[in-house]
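Q: what does this look like with flavin-adenine dinucleotide bound?
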Amino acid sequence: MTKDSLLAELRSIVGAANARVDTTETACYAYDATHYTHHPDVVLYPATTAEVSAILTAANRERVPVIARGAGTSITGGAVPIHGGIVICSGRMNRIVEIDTENLTATVEPGVVLATFQAAVEKLGLFYPPDPASLSVSTLGGNVGENAGGPRGVKYGSTKDYVLGLEIVLADGTVMRTGAKTVKSSSGYDLTHLFVGSEGTLGVITQITVRLLPLPEAKRTVMAIFDSVEAAAKTVSATIAAKVVPTTLELMDDVVIDRVEAYRPCGLPRDAAAVLLAEVDGSQQGVARQVELVAEVARNGGAREVRVASTTAEADTLWAARRGAFAAMARSRPTIIVEDATVPRDRIPETVARIKELCLKHDLQIGILAHAGDGNMHPLIMTDLRDREEMARVARFVEDLFQTTLAMGGTLSGEHGIGHLKKRYMEWQHGSVGVEMMRRMKQAFDPNNILNPGKLLPDQGEAASDASSLLD
Ligand SMILES: Cc1cc2nc3c(=O)[nH]c(=O)nc-3n(C[C@H](O)[C@H](O)[C@H](O)COP(=O)(O)OP(=O)(O)OC[C@H]3O[C@@H](n4cnc5c(N)ncnc54)[C@H](O)[C@@H]3O)c2cc1C
C-alpha cells in the first residue's frame, strides 16, 4: 500500500474535513509544552470508537506510528510524534456520556476538558478532585495517559485513584473494556491501572469511567510566610507528622514568588524566602479546626506571618496565581524546563537544600515550586535551548537531581510521566528486570511498536549516562 492510498483510507474513515496533512495545519501538533518538536504526517479527528478502531487497524497493518493526543500540554515530550506518523486528536470525542448521581460515577470521552467536567459535576453537588494546573485546557484522556495530579494530591491522590474502568482500542484495532462501574473490583489483573499513566504506548483510550465524591461543604485557604526556605520545607514535614492532612500544601520559594508577583500581582510577599499555601476542606466546623492546626504548625515552624483568606475571591486569586506560576516563570528566559522529582515527605527539607546546592554547583537559575504536601518537587529551570554549554549544565543538574531523589527512595515522576524526557533514567528506578518486564508488556499489547514509539521506555542500549544528549 502506498502512502497516498493509506491517506485516502484514513480520510474515508474520519471524513476529509477531519483529516489534516497541510503542514500549516499540522504544525501545532508537532509540539507539546516541552522544546521537543517533530511534525506528524497526518492529524485525524475521529468522532467514535469505531473510527479509532479502523484507524488503528490500518496503521498496524502499515506499521505507521500512532500518537493519541488530548490538548498537547504534556511536559515530558509525551505528545510529540518524534517518529512522525498519525496523530489521533480527541477533540471531537468530548462528550460527558453520563453522570450517575446514585452510584457517584461518571463516564466521559477522552477529549472532555477537565475544568468543563469538574464544573458539570460540581453543579450536581459532586466532586472530581484531580487538579493539574493545566485543568482549563488539559483533557481527561491526557490526564489518564499521564496519571496527572495536582495540589489536591495530598488528601485526594491523583487520577489513578478515581479511574474505575476504561474502553481502549488496542494496537490492532480490537476494542477492550476494563474494570467495572463499581467502587471495588478484585477480578484478575488490574488492566485499568496498567493503562493509567501508560502515555498512549499500550492503546488509545476512548471512554473513561471515574468515581466521584460529594462536594465538600466548605474550604479555606491559608498562607504561611517564611524568612527561610528550609523552615518552610521543615514545616511541610511537620504538618504531615502532626497528622494534619490539608487538601493542598504548596511551597513557592523566593524566585517563584518574585516572578509570579511580576506577572500577576496577587499579594504574595516579595521579601519572603518562601510561602506555604494550604487549602483545607470538609464540614464548616472541621475546616475551622484544620485552619487552626495548619496555622499552629506553621507558627511553630517559624512562619513570620500566617494569613487566612477571608473571602472566596481572595482565595481564588491566590490559587490562580499558583496555577499561573509556570507561565510566570516562562517569561524569564527563552526555555523553561519543569522537573517532577518526588520524594518521601520526611525527606522534603533535605531535597530542597540539595536543589539549592545543585543550583549553585551547576550555576543555573532555578525556582522551586512544589506540591510539597505529597513530596512532589517541581524545580523550574530557566535556561535557553540555544546555549549548548548551559544546556549541558542543565543535563548534569537533572542527572544529579534524580540520583538524589532515587537515593532517598523517591520516584522519577510524581505526575508528569516519563515521555521522551526521562526514559533514559528508567533503569535507575526500576532496574534492568523492571524495565525488561515493562518491555514485555509493551510487546504483548503492541507487537509492532506503533503506539507512541520512543516514549516511556529507554531505546535499546540507551543509558542514563547519555545525559549529555538529554535535551536533543
Ligand atoms: C502550564 C502547565 C501546567 C501543568 N500542570 C500540571 C500539574 O499540575 N499536574 C500534572 O499532572 N500535570 C501538569 N501539566 C502537564 C499536563 O497538563 C498533564 O500531563 C495533562 O494530563 C496532559 O493532558 P493533555 O490533554 O494535554 O494530554 P496530551 O499532552 O495531549 O497527552 C499526554 C499523554 O497522554 C497520552 N494520551 C492523550 N490522550 C490519550 C488517549 N485518548 N488514549 C491514550 N493516551 C492518550 C498522549 O499520547 C501523551 O503521552 C501541566 C502542563 C502545563 C503546560
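The chain is about 35% helix and 20% strand. The first helix runs from residue 3 to 14.
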